[in-house]
Amino acid sequence: MASVENALRIAAFGEPEVVDERCSLRFLASAAGSGPRCRWLAAVVLGACGRYAAATTLLEPLIRDRDVVVASLAASTLASHRRQLGGHALALSLDGLAVRKAVEALSGRWDGDGDPDGLDVYGALVDGLVGLAADNLGLGRLATAEVLLARAARVAAVGGCWRAEARLGWVRAELALASGGVADSVSPAKRAREVARERGSVRHVVKSELILGAALGAMGEQENGKQATKLVTNALTTARRYGWRSLIWPAQLLLFDLDVSLADWKGSKVTNELKELLGFTDPVGSRLAQASPWVPI
Question: What class does CATH assign to 2-13+26-291?
Answer without folding.
Answer: mainly alpha
